[in-house]
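Notebook entry, structure prediction.
Reason for the run: the old model in the group folder had no record of what sequence produced it. Starting over properly, with the input documented here first.
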Amino acid sequence: MNISLKNQRILVTGASRGIGRAIARQLSESGAEVIVHFNSNAEEAESLLSQFKTPGFMESCDLSDSGKVVGFIPALIKKYGPLTGLVNNAGVSIPAKDTLPTDEWLKIWEKTMAINSTAVGILCKEFVDQAKSQQNGRIITISSRAAFRGDTTDYLAYAASKGSLVSLTRSIARHYGKIGIKAFLIAPGFTRTDMANEILSEYGEDFALNDIALNELTLPEDIAPMVTLLCSGLADHATGTSIDINAGSYVR
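New structure, fully documented this time:
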């Protein structure tokens, strides 16, 4: 099966590294015009663009500041034209021990929710606004197995923020499908990224390997093909679904 994303323009958030980087590269290889979102790592975003086989662009936005997120997609549309796809990949995983004073714990909770949940809601809302007139658009949101199986007490905010994306995706899929807007959720498990390496350095690699059914950790490149398929339109009747890519560490 040959998947072509020719004539598609797709925004990928958090695309300068990790899972987002692999997704953006795969989308470009499949023919899409990709807008690479990054927060502050312009050098990595530029290096990614140099690898693209199709036209690509890079745009910065601080997703922790909802005032900056509002209007981000309309500005992109004005600059580059309508979007056919949105990949909500950007996210943070900040540990907050339950022994922290509540005010310190709350700061981590609010930052996590701002980036992982509130920003995604704003981006989805503004994407849908412009997709209505086209009667076409696909949203792929990267959640986590933590949304379904929970997480440790250090990562309550992370699990809660990722859980909110499940109902958001299902609501969009159920209520905008008649006008051509599809929404999907991917729930990875432990994936070898810079973010994961920070956890591995604390707990050790066996901590992750002993939790999965395979012999090696998931790579960002293991997730990118599924995103490409969902963007293609070949799986539109799976709209609203949650797809697990977690190496068998959580089976529903």
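Summary: The two ends are 28 Å apart (CA to CA).
The old model has been moved to the deprecated folder.
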